[in-house]
């Protein structure tokens, strides 16, 4: 006899929904076509709650909660879109854009970038913070792939897919705070690391940080409406 499943009922944005007790608010929202922005989340990988873009409000609590790791509870009332949440999400995106060099016009992922797409969905038109513009290395040592650390947002998708799906444990994170970087092995060049050449890390990267060198110069979907956005972002730089 199969074990019974404990079903929870809750409300998301005024909609009554049901969920299994082991599901997160993000799981249930996506099952019911309710959009919550994410960058570090990827179905099939463990959740780390790193990007905080999926923050939601819970009725009765002054705090904000990351939907990707928040388990559902009976009677929970969730708000996924509000002016408060928009403000926090825009601020997070501004920090990501200001921390490293995300000049979309010269990026290999332009028009096919999750950071770019989410910035548009959250109505981000400019960055109020000073750009740090660090000069980080571009690792071209691999025969197939390249790593541009200037584009990395430290979502750790590459780390998790390499460990949890491929089982190779090649990628990891080095350093703390602004000095954090993803590395291969003990900070060895990618080309001389223990990489299995599977390409999974490249496939899951949400930006242009990891890319296939053979695809450089290949036409990507165009996004002409993004050009005014770029001008607004860079006018104060």
Commentary on this structure:
- This protein has 237 residues and is of the alpha+beta class.
- It is built from 6 helices and 10 strands, in the order E-E-H-E-E-E-H-H-E-E-H-E-E-H-E-H.
- It folds into 2 domains: 75 residues, Ubiquitin-like (UB roll) (Roll); 146 residues, Alpha-Beta Plaits, CATH 3.30.70.
- The strands form 3 sheets. It has a 5-stranded mixed β-sheet with strand order 2-1-5-3-4, sandwiched between helices. The protein has a 3-stranded antiparallel β-sheet with strand order 6-7-10.
- The longest helix is centred in the middle third of the chain and has 17 residues.
- The termini are far apart.
Features:
237 residues; alpha+beta; Ubiquitin-like (UB roll); Alpha-Beta Plaits; 2 domains; 5-stranded mixed β-sheet; 3-stranded antiparallel β-sheet; 23% helix
Concise description?
The chain has 237 residues and is an alpha+beta fold.
CATH architectural category of the largest domain: 2-Layer Sandwich
Total domains: 2
The residue-averaged pLDDT reads 91
What percent of the residues sit in helical stretches (DSSP H or I)?
10-25%
Classified by CATH, the class of the largest domain is Alpha Beta
Number of strands: 10
* Overall radius of gyration: 19 Å
What is the helix tally?
Answer: 6
* Gross geometry: globular
The CATH topology assignment of the largest domain is Alpha-Beta Plaits
Q: Low-confidence parts lasting 5 or more residues at pLDDT below 50?
A: 220-224
Please describe the biggest sheet, giving its number of strands, its sense, and whether it closes into a barrel.
5 strands, mixed
Terminal-residue CA separation: 65 Å
Order of secondary-structure elements? EEHEEEHHEEHEEHEH
Strand order of the largest sheet: 2-1-5-3-4
Content-based structural category = alpha+beta
Strand content: 15-25%
């Amino acid at each position: 006899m199969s074990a019974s499943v404990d079903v929870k009922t809750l409300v998301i944005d005024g909609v009554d929904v049901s969920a299994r007790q082991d599901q997160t608010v993000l799981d249930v929202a996506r099952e019911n076509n309710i959009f919550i922005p994410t960058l570090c989340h990827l179905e099939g990988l463990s959740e780390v709650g790193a990007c905080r873009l999926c923050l939601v409000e819970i009725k009765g609590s002054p705090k904000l909660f990351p939907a990707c790791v928040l388990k559902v509870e009976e009677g929970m009332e969730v708000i996924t879109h509000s002016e408060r949440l928009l403000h926090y999400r825009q601020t997070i995106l501004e920090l990501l854009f200001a921390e490293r060099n995300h000049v979309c016009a010269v990026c290999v992922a332009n028009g096919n970038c999750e950071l770019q797409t989410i910035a548009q969905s959250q109505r981000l038109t400019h960055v109020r913070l000073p750009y740090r513009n660090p000069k980080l290395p571009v690792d071209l040592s691999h025969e197939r792939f390249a790593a541009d650390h200037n584009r990395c947002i430290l979502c750790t998708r590459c780390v998790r897919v390499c460990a949890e799906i491929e089982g190779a444990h090649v990628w990891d994170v080095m350093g703390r705070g602004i000095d954090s970087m993803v590395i291969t092995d003990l900070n060895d060049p990618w080309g001389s690391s223990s990489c299995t050449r599977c390409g999974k890390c490249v496939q899951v990267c949400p930006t242009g940080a990891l890319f296939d060198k053979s695809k450089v110069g290949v036409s990507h979907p165009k996004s002409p409406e993004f050009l005014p956005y770029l001008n607004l972002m860079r006018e104060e730089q």
